[in-house]
Amino acid sequence: MLSINGINSFYGTSHILHGISLELADGGMFSVLGRNGAGKSTLLRSIIGLNAPRSGEIRFDGADITRLKSHERARLGIGYVPQGREIIADLTVLENLQLALIGVGRKDDGLPGFVFEYFPALKSLTERKGGVLSGGQQQQLAIARALVQEPKVLLLDEPTEGLQPSVVDEIDNIIKRIHSERNCAILLVEQNLQFVRDITQKFAILETGHIVAAGDIGELTDEVVRKHLSV
Predict the structure, then answer these.
(1) Are 174 and 23 in contact (CB under 8 A)?
(2) Domain 2-228 in CATH: superfamily?
(3) 110 close to 118: Cβ distance less than 8 angstroms
(4) What is the mean pLDDT of the chain?
């Protein structure tokens, strides 16, 4: 479904990603790990079009999307949940969700009914401003905002960051349901190893913008973690 072939991404003159290649199968669940500054968020931003690679190719459903704008990629079926959630604080929960629909040209369709099935807590908070939500509520809203666009693949950047364990478990269950019930592929950037091992099928580890280890999730052994992820 999603194929990244030898991409090189920069911030200004700084070369961040060096010839990165990976494949996300239809319905797959793939995690990207690495220490801070390894290039994980840059990879997701490159895929969604916020930091277009200078070379290499990104293909989605067989089509070359390397030079498409981010809203064009969203309309094709790529959803994105950024690190830090980036909820619009002065808009209500409902307005945040409606804005996501406008972004894919579906403002008149109304919210898909399934959204509040996955996030029942948000149903009673639709008129509350995004800026006053708890961290867990904001993360649910960030995922719901991507989900209303009915993506084929969902990019998640650090979805458990700063959340207490009970909320992490809730996010874990929600992502599993989205994956299984909506046949939505997942590409996940995450630091929480327990979460990664529980939820994904394959992994890759980035180190200074290079892939240094990859494989099935069972190959993410303690030895690999000590070598590439221990601080």
Answers:
(1) no
(2) P-loop containing nucleotide triphosphate hydrolases (3.40.50.300)
(3) no
(4) 94
